[in-house]
Amino acid sequence: MTARRYWLMKSEPATYSIDDLRKDGTAGWDGVRNYQARNHMRGMKKGDLALFYHSSTSPSAIVGVAEVAREAYPDPTQFDPKNAHYDPGSPRDKPRWLQVDVRFKQAFPKPLTLDEARRLPALKDMVLLKRGRLSVQPVTAAEWECIQERCSHA
Description:
Elements: E1 6-11, H1 18-24, E2 26-29, H2 35-42, E3 49-54, E4 61-74, E5 98-113, H3 114-118, H4 127-130, E6 136-139, H5 141-151
């Protein structure tokens, strides 16, 4: 059996928040239009866990946890001309963009802001702090444990 892997997935709360995921239960993580982030989604396995990060807000913060409920499959928004994520260059027989489905696991009683994360030595090499704009990124087991310890208790 493969070991569980950990990820961080970013969303602007005005677009889709942890509360939206809690209400929906499960949702497709669509609209990713960065090749590296897409490749990370390609590597996600059902049961992997992801930190849910609210970006483009003040303060930006890790606010909860989602679980990968369905592995990567073609993102249907790339084929919809009415959708903001439409990509006329993506062929239907070999789609360029993928999405995964994620399931709500928990909202943290105490989110971890970006500024607070920068002050934690255990997170000094975290992708979030080095390549901040990447919307889907790996998280090490040690980083995961640090964040769980910090965020899971009010």
